[in-house]
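call fold(seq) -> tokens
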Amino acid sequence: MEGFMSEAFKEARRVLIAGEVPVGCVFVFPVDGIGTVIARAGNDVNATKNATRHAEFLCIDQTLEYCKQNGLSVREVFPQITVVVTVEPCIMCSAALHDLDVKEVLYGCANDRFGGKTLVDVPFVTNKSNGRPQVNGGICGDEAMALLKDFYKGENPSAPITKTKR
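ret:
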């Protein structure tokens, strides 16, 4: 899966240049028995001024379109998808991935401020054989953290103006 993680990092680097929080994501689906990237995205929150435009949600949208174009059932596709993302999905994204019943989630660094697993332990997915979540973190975690640090060294042009008390 490290090859797929490198694809997620390409997306993260692409959006870092565009001034977005550098989170990249790919959805891997078995096509003819071979893991194939069917969706790829990086965050698009700042450009769209829409807080739901996280990389995972953009990949969900692309997967819905993939299913439509290929005459596939959404309910059959999502349970076969491996989500590969550079940063642990936030609570919102974790809940969506859980509701879609994705097969597994692989992420780079933990998200100790907003992480769905770290903060509230949203059960991403359930392995039907043992009932435990299929979530693995720390894959190239140092590289993911370095990208986040690069972003936060500068100022976020879309951040709200800080209000001071008088």
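The first strand starts at residue 24 and ends at 31.
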